[in-house]
Amino acid sequence: MGHTYPGATVPFGMVQLSPDTDTIPYEQNGKYNPDVYKYCAGYQYEDKTIVGFSHTHFSGTGHSDLGDFLVMPTVGPLRLNPGTADQAGSGYRSAYSHANETAEADYYSVMLDDYHIKAELTTTTRVGMHRYTFPQSDQSHIILDLIHGIYNYEDKNVWTYIRVVNDTLVTGYRETSGWARTRKLYFALTFSKPFEAYGYRNYTRRTAYHGFWGKFNQNRDFPEIAGRQIRAYFDFHTHQGEAIEMKLALSPVSKDNALENLRSEIPGWDFDLVKRRGQDAWEAELQKLTIEGADSDKVNFYTSLYHAFINPTVYMDVNGQYMGLDKEVHTAQGWTNYTTFSMWDTHRALHPFFNLIEPERNGDMVRSMLAHFSQSPEHMMPIWVNSANENWCMTGYHSVSIVCDAIVKGIGPFAAGGSAAGTPGGATAVAGGAAAGTPGSAAGGATGAGGGSGDAVVGAYGAVAALDACVTTAHHRDYDGLGFYMDMGYIPSEKNGNSVSTTLEYAYDDWCIAQAAQKLGRTDLYDEFIKRSQNYKNVWDSSIGFMRPRLSDGTFRKDFDPLRTIDQGFIEGNAWNYSLYVPQDPAGLIALMGGNRRFVPHLDSLFTMDLPDKYFAETEDITRDGIVGNYVHGNEPSHHDIYLYDWTDQPWKAEALVRMILWRMYKITPDGLGGNDDTGQMSAWYIFSALGFYPVSPGDDKYWLGSPSVAAATLRLGNGKTFHVVAHNQGPQNVYVQQVMLNGQPLHRLYITYDEITSGGELVFDMGSRPNKKLFRP
Description:
Helix content is about 25%, strand content about 25%. The strands form 13 sheets. It has a nine-stranded antiparallel beta sheet. It has a six-stranded mixed beta sheet with strand order 20-35-36-40-37-38. Helix 3 packs across helix 16 (about 680-690), helix 5 (about 350-355) crosses helix 6 and helix 7 packs parallel to helix 10 (about 500-520). It has 17 helices and 40 strands. By secondary structure, it is of the alpha+beta class.
């Protein structure tokens, strides 16, 4: 479970270099192959063979792409097909053993048993470095597979190109159409030792027209290789114990930029120096939070911290150039462009975590989202972004949550007293005037002059322009039922398969817009969107006590099972889960459900009821060990559920449940996550909850209290201050909070604020084995 990979990467690195253990096709006989889901990250711990090492991966997603530029060293007769795992020697893959496998921060090593080759990997932000220690052989090869990919199918490769510049330097690109519909990635590859010969095989089926290239023998020692399905190879003679190193740099813009990235980031051939610098970069990140506690807690905590710093990923060359959503080259001046935004997941805790620990980096992520808006032909903020492509995956428009949370908290381009100069994507400055005439338009005040390579530069009113971008998105009537939502206050069931969950998510995002509007003094927008944020009530069926699909005529759908997810109006959750998805207004939800007397038993039952297997049998990423009652921790819409007890008269129940989830869903095993990490969201939930507080509703300034699992922690905040957490009398049985002190004074409420954390100070919990039901918590 979890779909993570064990390879080498630096924090937020564009190169994520990792072993891939099989080549499962996305489809078989014209139908989806369900086994492919196991290979979202390319690596399966249970597999016995490795097919090679590719340079791009997703960490913990429930869908996939990438797996670019797979490299595999071999000896003996040349094989250019990976073969199959059940037939030894059928291809270039190799058996391996976990006993001879090492995974560290920015370092991976394994012995390829079939070839007696030791493979070692390390990286910089944009370059992967390989070291292969060969046996003596007159038939040593390094294969470059441009067919290989993750979630592969026959037509995924649009085109591949290789140019052999000399006997140590190779450049090229691959263009694919997958989850990212139009994606082009360039590379520059150099070897530490000249190759003696090279060649390739084109596996493309013969086309009606193929030009006049038959004048050459292209298969061997021909410097220009092109086709849709290419595998190339480079031949060497090696003596026993000889190490051949190679460096492969990536660029989203050009081969020249890839070569510049290579020469800038790894100019020499000191593998151990690159590894050491990468590990120093990880140490600098991981030192931003230090904890005291049991060894098992430390392993889980720092594993989560590691995962949290993998994504989003840098998507920009060393010269500042990046490929935009409009397929034009742009230049980020004074900021870093990012991609891999799984915002349906990460808006909940990962970006709020960055606001504390990495506010400037998160500010650049916000800039990247606004750049996306400025380049979007649909004039929308991003939904799920991969490599200058909008994937339109999942529901809601949760970049709005991230941007509005940054506005409310004054993060990055919206810092108090600062200028947003350099921030891309002002609504009135770009997008063809799409925001003109919309409520909350900047009326010219936010319009900036062009800067860089076509990027808009928003002036001192950057927050206003960012709010306009969010409003423009929220007014996009053609997107995923938004027109119905705006006109009717809900999405009719017969118009949208996820009508209920999408209605609820829109309502939360609208509340975020209202909070940013209030911060900026935009009363008109605040009134509009705070009203829209109450639309959750329109899908509440009081007769059964659940959120329920509603038809266009206003009646509720009759055939309805609150335990089912498929075809019930929800995505990654059922009515039991989504009826609690009102993070913007828990008090209103509790009142709607009948107050504490009815709400608390309902919430209790979520964790204690029995959910029969049939209700999750069709769900790829959910298994029995990832479920507590009907609470599915791996499905992110439930991540705030435990903390809803803080709005009731029995808040101590949250304390015990938080500790139970920390123990049950995060284990020190290869399959230790109770679901996909989803590019860091599961890990961010762990980090916050282990510290004793959690952001239930990003967009406000509150972090709600739970039960810390650490004995002590120090947060080195992005503003240079420190915030300490101490848990006295900590232990596996002492899960209940007896008293809370903030900066030496008793805390008589269930939350702390953003300003209280970022001002520095100390939060002290006294723990015990029994709930303190008299603890004053109004």
